[in-house]
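Problem 12. The chain below contains 410 residues. Write out its predicted structure in token notation.
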Amino acid sequence: MALILVALRNVFRNRRRSILNIIALCLGTCLMVLGLGWVEGYHSYVYTAMQNFESGEVQLIPEGYLQEERRLPLDLNLSGYRELKDRLLSVPEVREATGRIDFSMRLSNRKESIYLVGRAIDPESEANTTVLADYIHSGDYLSSQQGGVLIGKALAERMAVQPGDTVYIVAQDKYGVENFIDIRVAGIFNYGFPPIDKNVVFMDLASAMDLLSMEDEVTRIVMRLNPGISPEKGVSLLRRQGIRGEIHSWKTFAQATVSAVETDTRSFYLMLIILYLLIVLGLLNSMSMSVHERTREIGSLRALGMKRREVLGLLLAESGWISLISAAVAIVLSMPMVWYLGSVGLDITSRMPESIPVPFGEQFYADFRIRHFAISLAAATLSAMVGTIRPSVKASRLVVAEALRGGRIV
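Solution.
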């Protein structure tokens, strides 16, 4: 205990060298904490955004639909939607299930026609599955009682339509017959994600079934699970229910996003490691020099009767104190940024390129975990110890007379 207190006193006695080491360790620790939280936030936020905006957590599709998905087939469908939905909702782990029909269509305002993707949704269930209802820019969300469509803000501006206007939709039904419908624009949505805002039109399920000759049939059912149930576990549980069709995790339908996130995550971690190593290299040199400059002091301690292991313990204890002080200062300094990134977030709407295959929403939040602080503190302690242990071992083995003469540690 006395040795530890002496080590603490030595830290404050050698202020200049200690301050330099503490600054370097603080910088590295802050970088590590913020970097880990940022990467974790990016990873979890993109996945959560994808589930909330588009894919849900688990999907049920017809047999063979995945291989034909690019052509948006209507002949591959799930019949008896209402009964199938009730059966899925009877599974305790399933919180919500909503049917969809994805189809090719042509939208017209009598002056201009545009080929788009139509997505028929079960309005009330969709509102509990995705965040579409939260992004209505003007007008109203869809309802089962009153048919209508939702058009993205960018598309609505291009076609000069607004809520209450009538638009015209032409689409081929499941038999290949081209049908026509005039329908009211219920509302304008704005995800802030151009691939959806400009290219997807949402329609109530009842109107779409009439247009496409779908008799209580859908092309997929999107599900949300109860808290604590992972998509992988949900898939496993649902597959054991013997439900017809194929059940897949959301990742199956977002492979471009998953691949991009995994690649970016690896790149972020690599960059973080490189930056931390650059800081640590300077720290290692500084910690080593702090021992080399104290050979006479070490010789005096040995001459006064201090054993080699006690000298080694003293030097390592000093490094331990420096790492603890650095960690405490780093946590205090990083907490405002941790709070800001975790609670307030960053507005990324204007900075998000259209090529990114996922709707982010408006705010990005970092995701800081206890393990990030633990890893950062462990890295700081290890860095301090690594920089000290080799010269400390050699210094403790110096002959007392040579150490008193200021002999070099080699």
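Discussion. The first strand starts at residue 58 and ends at 61. Students who got a different answer should revisit the alignment rule from Section 12.3.
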